[in-house]
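Hey team,

Filing this mostly as a record. A colleague (T.K.) asked me to run one chain through the structure pipeline before their review meeting, and I want the input and output archived in the tracker in case anyone asks later how it was produced. No errors, nothing strange. Just documentation.

Input sequence:
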Amino acid sequence: MTTVVIGGHSRNIGKTSVMAELVRSVRPPAWAAVKITQYGHGARSLNGEPCSCDPGEHGFLLTEERDRKGRGDTQRFLQAGARRSLWLRVRRGQLVRAFPALLRALHREEWVMIESNSILGLLDPAIYLFVLDRSQRDFKASAQKYLERADALVTTGPSQSDHPWPRVDACLLRNKPVFPVGPPDYASHELNRFVRQKLGLMAEAPIDGE
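Output structure:
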């Protein structure tokens, strides 16, 4: 099983958009897409009620998306062309316990793309891409832990020369390939080429007329 992991330093910085675009653009692999979401114990919604995304007493919940319509992250992966789309909801500290179930669900898959940082504690992917938005000051501890392992940085925010994270060693962000992307499609031919080369895939056939 060949895996590509998409991580990043915070929420809502474009990780899902980057991954959906790679699922769409980097072929011929038929990707199985996985989103991993970790929650604190007793996750609550905004009104204080138990959250429907809480993984429950077993510590994790693994589901497979079947609906290709809608705007959910797992639905977006199917819309982008993923052959399967899985969502692992797991309580913090329980990823080790959930990992065997995820492996069983993926045991027949040759190409897997995962949105997560913490999964790096359990597997060594072919590529780890780190999504970065310098306009967002939050930098999760799990992201900082694995930043050194990133093969490349994918920047989604405005270009800035400053280093907005004083607790993060700036050296960890240097000497890595950087690929800027942005809305609406988060596309980058250079990033696609980098991923294909790292995976040992043949170059895409030219489009007629180009």
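Quick notes for T.K.: The chain has one domain: 2-199. The helical segments are 15-25, 73-79, 95-105, 141-146, 189-199.
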